[in-house]
Each structure stands twice: as structure tokens, then as C-alpha cells.
Design a protein that fits this description.
- With 388 residues, this protein is of the alpha+beta class.
- The strands form three sheets. It has a six-stranded antiparallel β-sheet.
- The chain is globular, with a radius of gyration of 22 Å.
- The N terminus is likely disordered.
């Protein structure tokens, strides 16, 4: 499939209303006149959607996978994107599975092979994947292992331990457990893993002690500065670039981001990203790590996508969207911004017009009125009522 001569490259974002979708939009703001940006979304109320050129309403990918597959086929046929960008972990896995079914989409879907995608989505599989690839990963066990095995794990690694959903995101559902009773109750939840805590253990214990004495603070976050390694892998498997940042985390999001210019870390980033490239990954790759004291830098999560700090990294001088457009669509790079030493992220306010939401819910398709074409209002772009 090729676009009309002289036409704008067409880019489709899955889960375009997500935080990652917002970052992609922000990173491409300076190129908007030369691109047609479209979003697929299972929600209609998010204001950011109406900053796209067009939006397709879809079922939720995890809640209704079969309906999503059908709708995805309709959307592809209708908008004919040159590049499809996944914005959530479920999207990455879905897109990789579709690529496995239809290898002709290579170069069009921004992802690698499905086995690596599953290893990134499922945090227990991430542990097994890291072992197969020879990468240092935080020791991890299934939260539903027998009690003796969990007790042995706790004795080996000590409290606090971290308990998290196998397929979670944005730190949702993650708990720090301080003793065997908490570990037992946390592991009674479905589909959780237990992982060695890589952060500052004394500060966690001091916080728990303080809370037991004075009460729990209404607002609190135990996150620290994590090391985030972002890589761009071209369709041919070559490593385009890597970037290392320190991300100060608050409530599951990076509050401030700064460049980390250390030869040892740059070497690790290149080596680890090359391992993924050799194993078959393509497109963006995010590796999240931490270091405890003088111990080696240890990975605790992989992501095969852009992240909530993508726009911040561009301001720091690492234009990962520009690299993707160059490597995947052969578009010339745009002039980068003057690199900054540190980026602080602030919340902003958005609003939307109710008629936009109503139109998307009613028709399953929305397009900016300035470029609306009635010929686009074909049955192919309208989902069946039971799929929304």
C-alpha cells in the first residue's frame, strides 16, 4: 500500500488518548502540517483525541479482543496508514501478533516479534525473557507459588518486597509489602508477581514506621529516580540511537527528566538494546532500571513502545519520533530543539466540545471539520453497535 503521490504520510496511533499518545502528539507538533495523524480509541471523552486529524472508536482491546480485531481491520482498510504506532503494552502485543499473522505488514507496524512483545507485557515472562537473553533482571517469582517458595524468596531477598500485577501499567496495583502477613494477603490477588525491591529500603521502612506512629499521609509516593534507557531500532535491526535519562517518579509518572551522560551506562544501553535487536525487536524500546548502592544496575521492566517521557526526551535532544519517521517512512529529520539539561513536566488543562464526543459515539468516526470529506463517511468506518 502506498499513499497518493505528494500526499501526507498517514500515521495511526492505537490508544491515542493515552499518556503516550499525548507524548507522541507533542513530539510531532512541529511537523503537523506535513503529517496526517489519526487515533484509534476505546473512549470518546478524552479531549486530546480531538487534536488528531481523525479518530476511530474501537472496542477495548483486552475486554473484547475478537471485536477489536474486526474493528482494527476496518480501520486499516479505511485510513490506510503508512505507520501504526502502539501506545499501550496491550497494543504492542496485539500489533506484534498481527505482524506474525501477516508478515507483509513489516515496515508498517512499529513493533518486533510477538514472543518478545509477550515477554514485555507479562512481568513474569519478563523475568524468563531476561534470563534467556542474559540480562540482569530483578529476581521475580509467581505470586501464586506455594507458601514455602514465597517464604524462601522473602528470606533470600528481604523485606520490603514489591508485589505487582503481571500485566499492570503506570504502577497501578503495585504494593510494597513489609512482612510475611502482608505478602500472603497481597499474593491472594489474581495474577501477581513478587519481585526484589531495588529502591532505597531504609527510606521505605522509615516511612512505614513514621506512618504507624503519626498516621498515613494523605498524599505520598515512595518512588525514586529511576534510570530509563530508550532505544530506537530500525526495521533492518540496526540500532539507530539510545538515550539514558534519570526520571524522578511521582504517582506513577515522571515528574522531571534529566540526561545521564555516563560512559558505563551508555555502554549498557547500547549492549542491551542490541540484544533485543538481535532477538528480533524493532521500533522503540524502553528499559527501566535501578541501582541499589554499589550493586550492578538491574532491570525491572521492559516496554516495546514510546513512553510518558517521550516528549521530555525530545526537549533533552533525543527525538525518538523523528528517528522513527526517518527509519520507517524515510522522512527527512526535522530541526531538533536546542537541547535542555532538565525537563520538568506540569499538568495542563484540556476541554472538548460535547458535539465532538457525541459524533464519535454516534458514528464511530470523527474528523476535523476543516478537512472533513463526506465521502469518508462510509460504512467501513462505522463499527457495529455491539462493538462499541
Amino acid at each position: 500500500m502506498s499513499r497518493p503521490a505528494g500526499g501526507q504520510p498517514r500515521i495511526l496511533l492505537l490508544s491515542g488518548a493515552s499518556l503516550v499518545g499525548q507524548n507522541v502528539l507533542a513530539s510531532l507538533a512541529h511537523r503537523r502540517n506535513s503529517l496526517r495523524l489519526m487515533a484509534a480509541s476505546s473512549v470518546a471523552e478524552e479531549p486530546i483525541l480531538y487534536d488528531f486529524d481523525a479518530v476511530y472508536l474501537t472496542p477495548a482491546i483486552r475486554a473484547a479482543p475478537d471485536a477489536f480485531v474486526k474493528r482494527f481491520g476496518e480501520v486499516l482498510a479505511h485510513c490506510q496508514p503508512d505507520l501504526v504506532i502502539p501506545c499501550r503494552d496491550d497494543d504492542v502485543t496485539f500489533l506484534a501478533e498481527q505482524l506474525n499473522i501477516d508478515p507483509a505488514q513489516t515496515g508498517r507496524f512499529l513493533c518486533g516479534n510477538s514472543s518478545l512483545a509477550m515477554g514485555m507485557l507479562d512481568k513474569l515472562e519478563s523475568w524468563h525473557l531476561a534470563n534467556r537473553l542474559g540480562l540482569p533482571f530483578a529476581p521475580t517469582v509467581d505470586g501464586h507459588d506455594d507458601p514455602d517458595a514465597l517464604a524462601d524468596f522473602a528470606a533470600e531477598h528481604g523485606f520490603p518486597l514489591i508485589v505487582k500485577p503481571r500485566r499492570g501499567f503506570a504502577s497501578m496495583g503495585v504494593r510494597l509489602v513489609l512482612n510475611e502477613m502482608q505478602l500472603r494477603h497481597a499474593c491472594s490477588q489474581p495474577d501477581v508477581i513478587v519481585q526484589r525491591y531495588l529502591g532505597d529500603r531504609p527510606s521505605v521502612l522509615a516511612f512505614a514506621e513514621d506512618s504507624a506512629r503519626l498516621g498515613l499521609p494523605l498524599f505520598h509516593s515512595l518512588e525514586e529516580t529511576k534510570l530509563s534507557l530508550q532505544a530506537a531500532i530500525a526495521p533492518n535491526g540496526s540500532l539507530s540511537a539510545v538515550c539514558a535519562t534519570g526520571n524522578l517518579m511521582r504517582m506513577g509518572r515522571s515528574q522531571s527528566v534529566h540526561l545521564v551522560n555516563e560512559p558505563q551506562i551508555d555502554h549498557l544501553a547500547h549492549r542491551w538494546a542490541s540484544v533485543f535487536a538481535d532477538a528480533g525487536w524493532r521500533g522503540p524500546l524502553n528499559i527501566q532500571c535501578q541501582q541499589r548502592g554499589e550493586e550492578e544496575i538491574t532491570i525491572f521492566e521492559f516496554n516495546g513502545r514510546f513512553t510518558g517521557a517521550t516528549a521530555a526526551r525530545r526537549l533533552l535532544g533525543f527525538d525518538e519520533l523523528g528517528l522513527a519517521l526517518r527509519d520507517w517512512l524515510r522522512l527527512p529529520p526535522a530541526a531538533p530543539p536546542i537541547p535542555k539539561a532538565n525537563v520538568v513536566r506540569y499538568p495542563v488543562s484540556w476541554s472538548t466540545e460535547s458535539e465532538n464526543v457525541e459524533r464519535l459515539l454516534r458514528e464511530g468516526y470523527w474528523e476535523r471539520l476543516s478537512c472533513y470529506d463526506a465521502s469518508m463517511e462510509s460504512p467501513a468506518c462505522r463499527p457495529e453497535r455491539n462493538s462499541t
